[in-house]
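HIT-type domain-containing protein: structure, please.
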Amino acid sequence: MMMPEKTIITSESSNSSPLNPSSSRIICHVCNKQFAQYTCPRCNFRYCSLTCYKSHSVQCTESFMRENVNDELRQVRSDDQTKTKMLEILKRFHEEEEEEDGGIDSITDDEGSVLPEEIMQRIMNGDEVSLNDLSLEERKGFQRALASGELSKMIEPWDPWWLGASARTISLGRGGTQLVQSVEGEEDEEEATVVSDIPRGPDTPLISLSKLSSTNPSPLLPIHLIDIVYSYCFTLRIYNGEWQSDSLGSATMVLSVSSVLGQNAQPETIKKVLAFCLEQTCSSAYKNLGGGLKFGLSLVDDVICLLSLGSGAIVCLLCDLQRLIHVAIQEVKSSSGRDLKKKLKLAERKVFFMMCWVNEQSSEVWKALESSVRAEKNSVVELNDHNGVPKMKKTDQFRKNDGVVIEEIE
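Here you go.
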């Protein structure tokens, strides 16, 4: 029900304009002190400032924000430049896969990758083994074992916390803080260990977005979140869940995979985010670490899974990422890594802002975003599977809109 409008008749008729068509001025319906200069686009409520707008109806403002996000996501379209970029990534992946068909066999077929049993036992026991402890032949054997992946098979694979059953029971307080649950008795020790694998939430309540910024959050934040979540999942899987073993290296990897954190980019579509992330994953820099299209698509599945878990899981993820970056900042030497330290501090602030934004979103936002990412992933798979990847060639290194022009050869 609309409340009656209070008006004041002023004597300054000369100020009439298209923005102020008459000398009647309406009083703000919230504070009843200032003149109402704005109208709520949903309920036509008259207000005078951002503060009054945010307080006039929580349900109205949240619904308006949610509709803006959903409208932005529905506008995602495939443009020719981004599609071409994706085809380039898929093509390069298949070419590299064909080139490597005999690579590992040539290393291991002749002599195998056998290390002395004593050395193997020391490795399995977790003891330190230096290359100086090995003879020349043993070093060659170690390098063959490393190249063939034999040593990696000895490492127990890490189970991502977001795939566990306990991830679906994450519950955070109103301000995003971790709810403390006491675990009693020996029979619950195993369950407590599982729960502890989930990153701890914020130790103090998160700040309201209205206090962080006087402007409305960008509708591109959901898209940028996908970029950040992908880079986190990529890094943790590469480091087998133990980023603490090399926090600086982990943070540097996050920056290299995330265009939002590493390049201060502002991607406008989910397709562009996935194109950049998959290109980095399939690059030669990560080829020897298990990178590739199959790995990249599994990371997109990780993103989808985390979105399905909702705000609690995503806040825990971002909190863990913020800790990772914070520890890395402390490890950077101020003399030689000034630029890196500056970039890490900016990334830390972005992650914190994103965490505060995530904490205020409703489940409808995550359902819409999960559906959009799933659709984009399916389009990538279709490009890869439909009649194979088209054969393409570059033409004269000519670039248009920062993209290499591609000719499709039928």
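Notes: Residues 82-100+169-409 form one domain.
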